[in-house]
Design a protein that fits this description.
With 105 residues, the chain is of the alpha+beta class. 26% of the residues lie in helices and 11% in strands.
């Protein structure tokens, strides 16, 4: 059953139209930061998100894009301190994972 109100999954973007040489070049650049992206084809890249993805994770991805495009982020942005006292709505209980996953012995 699909939840029609709450969504999370994979975002796909056109790396070439975004100013990058190819999907392979941006995947290689993100690997330098320890982040795996999915190659869709020569132009497109996918980034997957799930209920364990945090705002800090999203900000790290944004910061890497900014760095790769030679832009700077604003002071204090993209840090845990930036969000320390901010209250965000949590995922609804009906879509939160309740079982363990990706647990390595």
């Amino acid at each position: 059953m699909t939840d029609s109100v709450n969504h999370f999954d994979t975002v796909t973007f056109d790396a070439v139209s975004s100013g990058f040489e190819s999907s392979d070049s941006i995947i290689s650049d993100f690997h330098k930061y320890g982040i795996n992206l999915r190659r869709v084809d020569d132009r497109h890249v996918g980034i997957s998100f799930n209920e364990t993805t945090t705002l800090v994770d999203l900000d790290e991805i944004i910061e890497i894009f900014y760095d790769l495009k030679s832009k700077q982020t604003s002071a204090g942005f993209l840090s845990e301190e930036y969000y320390k006292n901010t209250k965000f709505t949590e995922l609804p209980a009906n879509i939160k994972r309740s079982s363990n996953f990706m647990q390595q012995p």
